[in-house]
Amino acid sequence: MSSDLRDLIRNDLDRIPLPPDERWTMRRARRRGFIGVGVAAIVIALVVAASLGGGQALQALRDRIESDRASGGVVAPGDDYVYVSDGGPSPLGTPTQGLQTIAMPGGQSVGRLIADTYVGTAYEGGLMGIRGDRAFLPVAMSAAGDDYDTYLQEVDLSRGLGLRRISLGSAPAPRALQAELPGTPVFPAATAVSSDGTSVWLVRDTFDHGRTTVVDRFDAQTLSPLAHVILSSSGSGAVRSRAIALGPDRLAVVRYHYESMNLVAADWYFLDAQLRVIASYADDNAHRLPASGACAADVEASPANAEWLVLCSDPSLFSDGALLFLDSSSFTITASVSLPREQGFALGMSVAVDNTVYVLTGRPVVARIDPRTHRTIDARPVIQARSWLDQLIPAVVGAKSPGGPSAAFSPDGRYAYLAGPPDQWWGSLATIDMREAKVVAHTSAFGAIGAVGLSPGGERLYALATDRTGARRIVLLAPDTLRSVAQSQPIANEPSGIFAVRTQTQTPKQAAAGRGTAGPQPTPHRFAAGSPGAPDERHPGTHRWSGG
Amino acid sequence: MTEPSDGATAWEAVFRRSYPSVYRALVAVLLDTELAADALQEAFAEGLRRPPASDHALAGWLFRVALRRARRIRGFGLPLRLDEVVGALREPEISAETDALLDRLQAGELLRLLTRRQRAVVVAHYYLGLTQQEIADALGVRRGTVGATLSQALQHMRRGGTHVI
Question: For residues A239 and A258, what is the distance between their CA atoms, to the nearest angstrom?
Fold first, then answer.
């Protein structure tokens, strides 16, 4: 292919006519003159704008001081557990990845579950669908030879407790998949929990390059298997899958196709309670969702109709993105609102209290979409401050991958919190008012920000910060002013992402004593701080699943 | 590179040898014949002031300098950051003349599928014959980025083009 392309390009480009010889080295007056006039005009415009903007800047400064006085940077430091994923996808035989619990605002690490617990990476994003207070983590423990014992580890996020560990049997390390997609864990799986907490879905990528995806649904209480299906595909490259819970009994399975470590397409399957395929957008680009299926896993329910909102955006901006409206029963596309690629990559979306859907793009632009009419209301560039100059030249913010861990949205949909490296003009952390399309606060005081997470009510913002010495901490911030309220001690094992934030419902001491355990759960245990996860024999409630 | 006494003449001579290939490469990347000519002329002027250290990889040097000049021309000569912002905003327009030229080329259809960076990498690699490291140096990016960009560009061309490549 390469030689054909080389020949094609060489032959074709050699046919491009050249300018006359005398023009090769002769300076052309027209362009220079144009530039000179252009520069002069812009300098004049800048001087005028700066003069006009000066007064507004003073006004903005006064407003800011007033605003700061009003808010005072005060945020009530509630007791939260911040779960961070640390380590990395393990080298074979040496489990290193873990889930660490940081109790805030005290800032101590109160537990860590290790054993190749795979909770996502910056490369692939978070693969767990966390709703409610229960999470199920795929865990692998080295067994004999090249095999691994695999489990699902149930975690009570509100109490910082590891609960049952459910054996899924042993499986060989996915060598071909790991070779195709370096960083793939030895147990390439993902889970999702239904909105009502009654079902758990598990998707596993198996066999040749992960091209066979095994999907299971389990009863969350009894852990008995309820349904089972296999999705497979042919072709080249590797496949990684994730599950997205849609309400109490519907599931979306997304199968991401990678070639040469590049995401090239994604197949979407929508399944019913029995895991029968209701609708699929797969196999080729003619049948895939827009942008080759590159749609964010942060699927939202429409506030206006019985529809799901799916945000699609091509990372390379080869094609336009779209906000899709899918019928909640048939999962057919009822409407599609185009997001022109000129607006940049779609960073994420939120639903405001007035039912408007905000889409934030990397240009940056905030597009407002009415979910009732399926029409764009407007698309406005995000500005940083209030000066007139800012409106002339929109500021630029850094981009992120779709639905990744570096952005969070307030529960009311009004604000977006963007994280990034410290060399962005807006600092490493910014709060964007989606309604006003304005950066209301930004800072680089905490170094690089790897991830952000909000407390369940949105009152407290947590950022995973790396300072110049490389020390990583959880910083508690006031979401509106980005003022620091508290920060943790340096966290060991190089945490890379915020997995979840939950309000504590039990003190670590109570939790350790096992008091107040609700429901028919087996005896809970604290994560062992800095030690390997215990074998399943320690958990009387351990079940061996036969599903899959 | 050359003796001071005949430096300008010698520089013009080597510049003219590289001109056809670099000019065509710039047209393919910038999709603007006028801009390509102006940018390359400014690279010539830059070479007169500060000649490259050697004739080795001269095409790569001209390509790099001309691309920077093109960005500055597009950005009205504003400082670097504003250059990028304004240049990016003015990116999509393709002149009718260049459009007609690309229509006559089989590769034109493919190149129009790509972003400017992707075009720059593809053309530098397949037309100018630069290595990935030389392209990385020319574009001021890491070598891995060049490889990834090249891979993405090929994907796009494979998916979007009607030609078998």
Answer: 6
